[in-house]
Amino acid sequence: MKPQKLTIVGGGSTYTLGMINSLIAEKAAFPLSKITFYDIDEQRQASNAKATEILLREAYPEVEEFVYTTDKETAFSDADFFFIQIRTGGLPMRERDEQVPLSYGCVGQETCGAGGMAYGLRSIGDMITLVNDIRHFAPDAWILNYTNPAAIVAEALQREFPHDNRILNICDMPAAIMVSYAQLLGCEIWDLVPEYFGLNHFGWFTKVRNREGVDLTDEIKRIILEEGISAVDPEIADDPSWQATFKNMQTMLKDNPQYLPNTYLQYYLYPEKMVEKEDIANTRARQVINGREKRVFSLNERIIAAGTTANERLHADIHGRYMVRVAASLAYNRGETYLVIVPNDGAIPNIQNDAMVEVPAALTNDGPKRFAVGTIPTFQKALIEGQLGYEKLVVDAWFSGDRQTLVNALTLNRTVVDVPKAQQIVDELLRVNGDYLPQFH
Ligand code: G6P
Ligand code: MN
């Protein structure tokens, strides 16, 4: 197995050190000879990088070269794989995305609803620029993207780079849910084979089998209905907000036991409850700023001061491990099945071909080969089509700079619906995001 060279774009992210732990845990599957960090924020990246240097020396000496830089040519010239995890505007803008819709009584969430629209509009430009710059230096490298809102980013990249079949958008949420299924069943996530369909952050597990082909779906549903389900991946297990979200999966399943829901459906199916529980002064962004962000950067400081990771309990998480295994399957032609975001192209025949859908696909060095899902029921089809209309209009609006298109988008989004509210929220979000969105001036 030829070792790979990896560039992480967004080296300053709060997820970077966790990703390094995942690369260490998966080094047999995805061996690396070089790791590069790229970020526009030199300071945040340097903190992660200095801790990473120590961690690699202690736990991954096979990595011959580790570089961190704010120079695109250095970062992009010599890489087989790119993992992209950027957040345009950072957590402070995430907080605005959450607060503005809430102040109009609508769901305020990072990727769902009006907040997701604003975040999407900010992400599209940076992602298009990044992919163009990466392709300039690394025309054949794999680009794996985690940047949110993945549904909108995937749609925009598909339009801008329709012939580039080495860009793959991924989300860890279905995998994080499967980690919890595995715990309920007393097995490992990697023992489970899912059938799933939907849009990103908007989908359902229709079946979960084990590798022997035994259908475990009813057993999972029974346990969730009787005992509930909790977040168990180490990254989210201690987080009250994530535990509340996982608890809601039981409510969703009770209210509609047909399929196993993605956690994010709570925002679309229970918008009133989701608004009620929010404190506008302490939305999720503020919790992450006071929680994960502080935790990660003080962990870095302790590692750097001690010159060793020996005093710390570091762990891989599903967020990183899923991405790394996806990369390994692509690099070494493993043909393993993962849930990824790809053009529909008939996988769901009663949804338009040019939807970017989240479905299982076999991953080879020729790219993802998605499996046929088949015709889906009217209820899910109609929900998906409304949401898809919203996503497509947001991308249309980014290219055209047309405000009315954004109002139409939010009119379709189940977390807004009401036209006067849509108009007010669009105007407020465009005002707050003015510097990022010159096309709307
Ligand atoms: C899950 C989703 C990601 C999202 C993250 C937010 O992992 O799949 O798309 O960014 O949750 O988590 P946070 O803890 O930052 O609210
Ligand atoms: Mn996600």
UniProtKB/TrEMBL annotation:
Residues annotated as domain Glycosyl hydrolase family 4 C-terminal: 196-416
InterPro entries: GlycHydrolase_4_CS (IPR019802), Glyco_hydro_4 (IPR001088), Glyco_hydro_4_C (IPR022616), Lactate_DH/Glyco_Ohase_4_C (IPR015955), NAD(P)-bd_dom_sf (IPR036291)
Cofactor binding annotation: Binds 1 NAD(+) per subunit.
Site (Increases basicity of active site Tyr): E110
Cofactor(s) of this protein: NAD(+)
Binding of Mn(2+), residues: C171, H201
MF (Gene Ontology): hydrolase activity, hydrolyzing O-glycosyl compounds; metal ion binding; oxidoreductase activity, acting on the CH-OH group of donors, NAD or NADP as acceptor
BP terms from Gene Ontology: carbohydrate metabolic process
Origin: domain of life: Bacteria
Active site per UniProt: D172, Y264
Family indicated by similarity: Belongs to the glycosyl hydrolase 4 family.
Name assigned to this protein: 6-phospho-alpha-glucosidase
Source organism (scientific name): Salinivibrio kushneri
